[in-house]
Amino acid sequence: MNNLTMQNLNRKTMQYLINNISVGMSLKEIKDMCEKYMLENGADSFWYWNVGALIFSGDETTMSISGKRYKVANRIITNNDIITIDLSPQNNKYWGDFARTIIIENSKVINDINNIQNQEWKNGLLMEKYLHERLI
Fold this sequence. Notes:
- The chain is an alpha+beta fold.
- 36% of the residues lie in helices and 21% in strands.
- The protein has a single domain (3-111), classed as Creatine Amidinohydrolase (Alpha-Beta Complex), CATH 3.90.230.
- It has helices at 3-20, 27-40, 119-135, and strands at residues 45-46, 53-57, 81-87, 89-91, 94-95, 98-105, 108-109.
- The longest helix has 18 residues, at 3-20.
- The model has no long low-confidence stretch (mean pLDDT 96).
C-alpha cells in the first residue's frame, strides 16, 4: 500500500461514480456511494475529518468549507447540474486527495469539456485544465 494506490483508488471511485450517477439522486446518496466504494476497494478510513467525500452541487460548488464543519446538503441532482466531489481515502498512513467536477446536461454526464453547452461551466473547466497543465 502507498499513496499512489490511494490516488488510483480515487480515480477508480470517480469513474465508478460517473458510470452510476443519475438525475434524481441526492447528494447524500452520492457521498455514501463514493465512501462505500472506497472502503470496499482498499481504504480503511478517511483522512480529512473522517469525511470520505465532500459533495457540492449547483451554486454551492463555489464554496470552500472545512471537512470539520461539512454537512452534506439536502439537494437532488437535476437534469442540468454541476457537481464537485473531493475524495480523501486513507489506508494506514497512506492517503489520497482527489477532486473533480462533473457536468450533467440533458440528464447525461458530459465527459468532454468541448461538449459542455453551459458556457460558464465550460470556461471554468477549460481554465482549470489550463492551470493544471501550466502548474505541472
